[in-house]
Write a structure and sequence with these properties.
alpha/beta; D-Amino Acid Oxidase, Chain A, domain 2; 8-stranded mixed sheet; 6-stranded mixed sheet; globular; binds 8-demethyl-8-dimethylamino-flavin-adenine-dinucleotide; binds P-hydroxybenzoic acid
Amino acid sequence: MTISETQVAIIGGGPSGLLLSQLLHLNEIDNVVLEQRTRDYVLSRIRAGVLEQGLVDLLDEANVSQRLHAEGEVHSGCEIAFNDDALRIDFAELTGGKGVTVYGQTELTRDLYEARDEMGGTIVHEANNVQLQDLDSDQPSVTYEHSGATHQLKCQFVAGCDGFHGVSRSCIPNSVRREYSRVYPFGWLGVLSQTPPVAEELIYAATSSGFALCSLRSRTLSRYYVQCPLDDDISDWPDDRFWEELKSRIPAAAARALVTGASIEKSIAPLRSFVCEPMSWKRLFLAGDAAHIVPPTGAKGLNLAASDIYYLSRALIDYFNNGTETGLGAYSDKALDRVWMAERFSWWMTNLLHRFPEHSGFDEKMQRGEFTYLKSSQTAQAALAENYVGLPY
Ligand code: RFL
Ligand code: PHB
């Protein structure tokens, strides 16, 4: 067994782990990222597309935002359609000039990998059977298998950035860990196509046959979603069926303008709300999807990962540079306050815009009432906009 040492062992090379690694390295804190997949696999996952300003600021701080500023699009509003009625939420006007940046998670992850390479950061891909040890001691370690050999990485702290299906969360003992979750009775079928987006801004559409979302990655790359039954398979959704369903759920003018084409990626994602408390235990700190999941309706998952990394990076920098543990001790409570507010917003958007199989006529009238209120009240729109552009860190 080979033995090596670092200050912070980071489990997971997704956006959370890479961003933490970059921020720590810039502050001269040694770290190693252990990722179980290949880089190509990580970069093939099509996920988020909407970045809050807080995340953009953090990427500026991490020196990885050059391409984002050149290629990302700043959006100052979005459309919410409810059957044949529609409403534009003017983020800029309602929030004093704030907006969001549309830039794919895949591109952001690519930028982070390139920055780590340039700085000579250590990322071990295809690290298998990762196990966390002695988290309740001063000298925790992580063992893993790589290229047929077993390795031990000694460290002072472990950052669990290994997503919802990772190993870190379960290292918090059952007697300490509480998990809260809600699984929604539908999924999102997502399609990426090399076609111009149907509209300049995102369209969130609720109809009696289900939810649809028109999003984009660039002027030539579109990302669309339709709500689908949880047990549907990709093979149930040839491109023609997808486009027909999408057209039937979006406003008529958008349906007429929609340019269709061959899908270049198609996947079904389940929708879930999930929070693990606490987000730290002894020498282990969880961040991102390892600690919480939101349904994608509010575009909050990646953005919450960013606020976790903001709090955690500062706490670790404070520890290593100033010798204070205050930030580390406060990390879980601080992160969770913001997590629960984003959970609330994502749950609210999901409830407003989806068709639930168990909904009665009363529930549907409640959704309509909520939309009518939103349409008639600047205050309600401001609350939506404030959450969508991102609550302060
Ligand atoms: P990730 O991206 O899942 O990365 C975790 C990494 O850990 C690795 N890993 C392990 N490594 C070593 N050992 C193990 N035992 C390991 N187990 C796992 C994995 O291979 C992986 O590389 O988590 P991270 O970094 O916390 O990032 C979170 C975001 O990816 C996620 O929250 C967002 O994608 C959610 N999300 C959205 N978020 C937004 O903010 N805005 C959006 O517009 C948005 N749209 C979306 C989304 C997620 C979606 N899906 C598919 C879930 C749209 C969709 C459809
Ligand atoms: C996306 O572009 O993938 C996207 C945008 C907004 C969401 C969810 C996903 O709410």
